[in-house]
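Next comes a single protein record:
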Amino acid sequence: MHARVYKIQSGKLEQWKSWCEKLNTSLRDEAKSTIKEEGGTFESVLVFSLGDDWYTVGISDAVKSGNMDRAINQEHQRQKKECLESGVSVEVFYSL
C-alpha cells in the first residue's frame, strides 16, 4: 500500500472535489476497472485543510501505473496537473 499527500492549488479545491465526486459516481465502474488493471483492489482520496491551505491524500494498493491509453487515466492525470502541486510520499503504518 502506498500514499501521497498533495497541496491543492489555490482556487482549485472545487474542481478537484468535482473530479473526485465524478470518479465516485458516474465513472465509478470504469475507475474500479482501472484499479483492477493496476493490480489493486482499492483507491481512496481524502481532502483536509491546514490553516488556509487545502490538501489531498491518495491511498492505493495498486502495484503498477495506469494504462495511459485509457481516457479516464488521461483525464485523471490532467486533473492532478491542473489542481495539485507536487506530492510527497507518506508511510502507511497499518491498514486493518
